[in-house]
Design goal:
Blueprint: H1 3-6, H2 10-33, H3 37-43, H4 58-68, H5 72-84, H6 87-106, E1 111-112, E2 115-119
Antiparallel strand pairs: 1-2
C-alpha cells in the first residue's frame, strides 16, 4: 500500500466515490444521446486545456482550471440540453461531467492558487 492510500481520509474516499458515481451517470447520459463514441473519446480530456491558464501565472491558472473542473457548468449545459431537447448539448455536458468525475477518482482536485499540485484533495 502506498503512503498516499494509507493516509487517505474518509472524506477523500467519499469524494472519489462521488467521482465514480458522476462518471457512471455521465457515461449513461452520453449513451442515451446517440452521439458517436468517437466524440466522447476525443473530448474526454478537453477540459484539461484550461491548464493553459497557468501560462499567465498560478492565480489565473487556478481560476481557469477550477472554472473548467467544477460541476456547475456541465450541469448547466446538461440542463439546457434537457430543456431544449438538444442531444449535442447533453453529449458535451455529459463528457465534461465524466472528465471531472474521472479526475476526482484519480485524485485530481480543484487547485489552490499557491501551486498546481495543491488541491482540495491533497493533504
Amino acid at each position: 500500500m502506498t503512503r498516499r492510500l494509507a493516509l487517505e481520509t474518509p472524506q477523500i474516499a467519499l469524494l472519489r466515490l462521488e467521482g465514480v458515481a458522476l462518471f457512471a451517470f455521465g457515461v449513461t447520459l452520453f449513451a442515451s444521446t446517440g452521439v458517436s463514441w468517437w466524440l466522447f473519446t476525443i473530448l474526454l480530456l478537453a477540459p484539461d486545456l484550461s491548464a493553459l491558464g497557468y501560462l499567465a501565472g498560478p492565480r489565473i491558472g487556478a481560476w481557469c482550471y477550477n472554472l473548467a473542473h467544477t460541476y456547475t457548468l456541465p450541469a448547466a449545459l446538461i440542463g439546457v440540453g434537457w430543456a431544449t431537447g438538444t442531444p449535442p448539448a447533453l453529449a458535451f455536458g455529459s463528457i465534461w461531467l465524466c472528465h471531472i468525475g474521472l479526475d476526482r477518482v484519480v485524485g485530481y482536485g480543484l487547485k489552490h492558487r499557491t501551486a498546481f499540485r495543491s488541491t482540495h484533495l491533497s493533504f
